[in-house]
Amino acid sequence: MTTSNKRYKKVLVIEDNHAILDVITLILQSEAYKVSGLSKGGHMMEHIQAFEPDMMILDIMLPDADGRELLEQLRTNEATAHIPVLMISAKYTDKTIQHGAYKPNGFLAKPFDIDELLDKIEGILAGKTY
């Protein structure tokens, strides 16, 4: 019995716009990622514990939370501090976003280009910061 070294990378996407969440999910699944999506930040920590993502895509503006506050929760929790995060936003840009003390591994303004999204995900998973 042989075991494959190629383990599917798991990406947790927290995005309240269902159309965007569906598009990201389809794109990532077509690239052989395992994807789990949430439309709110409320159960994020329990979901992370169950899904064990290799990285997260986190929208800033959620109906029940600010993505920057969720990022702070991740970074200040020993169990989740290591998870790389790509933040996305329609309201903010690289220049106008204020992250506070905790920085994501990358940022992407919406609407985004599919290739740019995939490049940033692959880069972040390889240890790069944008």
Automatic annotation (TrEMBL):
The alphabetical list of record keywords is:
Phosphoprotein
Family annotation (Pfam families):
Response_reg
Q: What is this protein called?
A: Response regulator
Top-rank lineage group of the source organism: Bacteria
Coiled coil: which residue ranges?
none
Q: Supply the source organism for this entry.
A: Pedobacter albus
Ranges where the Response regulatory domain occurs: 10-125
Q: What is the phylogenetic placement of the source species in the record?
A: Bacteria, Pseudomonadati, Bacteroidota, Sphingobacteriia, Sphingobacteriales
Where is the PTM 4-aspartylphosphate found along the chain?
D59
